[in-house]
């Protein structure tokens, strides 16, 4: 007799990851397919997605318990996403099997950054201080918005401060010292 799983069991199982992504960086998610020749529609998880794709020759695609390292055949912008052609995915049905998959690269394959550019994962966890030196909290997340990225700063009491990631508000980013200095205006806190 087959045991019926509870909703709690199912949700717990979904939380567990099939793979450890230690030493890897998420750069994109497969959100659909395009045409009949196996092109994937990819939503970028990086501001420098195109530049990143130029310096690598393959990506690791994870979907569920499946892991594939696939060579890159082509990439082109398409509306607000990208069309990615990977070797080994030759038709629409093969591409459809990868919907919901994630594209990861090794940390050492990251594209070099220009002055004032940062990887999201390098900012997450930084201690945040105001210009007076008072600790505000830690960077919990980053939201992409059309005008600017928004830093989500979690205070010790669990409250959240949202700060646009622009020079007017972010005064200093010290990755070595693991700290960020911001200037807040009335109403931000």
Automatic annotation (TrEMBL):
It comes from the Bacteria. Residues 121-187 form the Ribosome maturation factor RimM PRC barrel domain. Keywords: Chaperone, Cytoplasm, Ribosome biogenesis, rRNA processing. Pfam families: PRC_RimM, RimM. Residues 27-108 form the RimM N-terminal domain. The keyword Translocase does not apply. One of its GO terms (biological process) is ribosomal small subunit biogenesis. It is found in: Cytoplasm. One of its GO terms (cellular component) is cytoplasm. Its main location: cytoplasm. SUPFAM superfamilies: PRC-barrel domain, Translation proteins. GO terms for molecular function: ribosome binding. Belongs to the RimM family. An accessory protein needed during the final step in the assembly of 30S ribosomal subunit, possibly for assembly of the head region. Essential for efficient processing of 16S rRNA. May be needed both before and after RbfA during the maturation of 16S rRNA. It has affinity for free ribosomal 30S subunits but not for 70S ribosomes. The PRC barrel domain binds ribosomal protein uS19. NCBIfam families: 16S_RimM (TIGR02273). Binds ribosomal protein uS19. This is Ribosome maturation factor RimM. It comes from Thermovibrio guaymasensis. The gene is rimM.
